[in-house]
Amino acid sequence: MNDNQSLNLLDRALGLDQQSRPWLLSGRVVLVEDCVESTASFVLHHLIKRSLCLNSSNVIVFVAFANPFSHYDRVLRKLGCNLVTQRDNNRFFFFDMLMLQCPDGDEGKSEVGLVLLYEKIRKTISVLPEDKKSHVTVMIDNISLMEVAANGASDYVLDFLHYCHALTSEFGCSLVTLNHEDIYSNTETPTFILQMEYLADILIKAEPLATGLAADVHGQLTVLNKATSHALGSSRNKVYNFHFKVKENSVEYFYPGSRG
Amino acid sequence: MATIKPRLSSFSRNLSVVPSPQTLGLKCGPNGTTFVSSGIPDLDKILGGGFPLGSLVMVMEDAEAPHHMLLLRNFMSQGLVHNQPLLYASPSKDPRSFLGTLPSPTASKDDKSRHSDSEQDKGLRIAWQYKKYMGELHQNSYSNKDDKQVFCNDFDLRKPLERHYFSAQRVDCVGIQDSTNLVVLRDHCATFLAQFSRTEGSSSCAGRIAIQSLCAPQCEHSKMEWDMLSFIKSLKGKLRSSNAVAVITFPASLLSLSSSKRWQHMADTLLSVGAIPDEDKEMAKLLSGYQDMVGLLNVHKVARLNTQVPVILEATTFSIKLLKRRFLALECLNQAPVDGSSGSSYGTSGSCSGSSKTLDF
To answer: Where does the protein principally reside (chain B) (predicted)?
Structure first.
């Protein structure tokens, strides 16, 4: 293919440069972590753009807790991807969960909202034509707000994620989630985030520079790609580390010190 | 003064390109957002125009000092002056009495005299050789102020707001101390925000919500962290689809660390205020104008609606000053001049237009 040129460091770190499969993330779980100082939502935007524009058969199921459709539409339009068209073509399914609030109180009731959400996702995927099912990406922005919607019942959220994980093996679709790491770093046993990291095949972490915010470097990304080990037959995980600068129509990725 | 043609900075030139605001107190911003003023001209400038409609602003309080009230008062006053409906919630017994402490806008005449006055003050402080440069600088900021006169007023903290501004039925006050949960406040917010729903078309009017000390320990809900979080989440969800801005102040130190992080993630614009110790000799030596400072303001996050590009400010810490004990002003921290014997100056000096500056070499 001729688009090898347009692949950037992040794509390479994710393994998108290999042509073996139509959509290399299929069957994989990706966890994106960020913190207050530097948000990583641009990684989600990038993945949306990659999957909707490069390969014509990909479908995205987007579960939004953080922002309304108009926000993503504007952002993606600047990246060169029209979400409204994709939505009309049934390639982008947007679930607005901004106002989702599971009823609290009685035990067992608060999971109802999440169960319904899972049913909705599953139904959306299962009615897709057979050839598209394995090209589905389920994206959740973001998990910490989902916890709030579940009134802090982290176990239900984990259950939900496990169910979604089961979808990846059932249909071969991929799961991309965003979470804020610094919420958990202060707790004694960050079980929740550890479980999520364990589930993930690819871990993308966005951090600010240790020297503080700068206009030229917005932060650094660490990509841990666990699954490359199987492909290469080695047991070592591959870690990629690079800086980024977010712009309206693209994101620049570069190795530390390679600019300037 | 008026005969000199003001040299326009790039900022005000952009303003003339943007279609003029249809309504008093609203200004078009980038990415299809609309700004309302924070009530502090300097803060508007720092944030790139003001608070965008649909955003949630959070202010982390200093547990020992009431500096957040300064921000809150100006925010509320500005809304009332622009005739924007206001919802105010506070943990005090009688929230409505707080309206009596709101500052009053200065007339434009006072404003002018104030500016030329302060210009003279500043002129005295700097070496005479640099006076001509300072003059230029001031005219810039001066012309900016004139452009935005309608958008953002200067408030005189010593003069209470005239009663006719808030005697109208547009102000709703809620006490959150006695209610055992946040259902009452949530309902108030929901009915308030229903007036400004974006689906109704024109953005003719904007609403303001000011919530003071949401997790104050005297409130019964302060123990229910998830309830407060879900309240903020639902408020933010509703804000996104309405023409309104909410400012919530909260004592971050009273929340658990992970909860506090969650709150900070929820905020679109995140500020924090802090007091400075009275007689800190070290600091006084390090920073110029230390005597005039009343506190520090930190900008942690600037709202980025409809865009993925983060806003990187030149400086994130500003000093809160009271000019002539009346007007709230924010300035960059400037390093005090060091005498030659004490060695090299290593720098915290940032730059900020229109502030009184020590010129370092």
So the answer is: cytoplasm
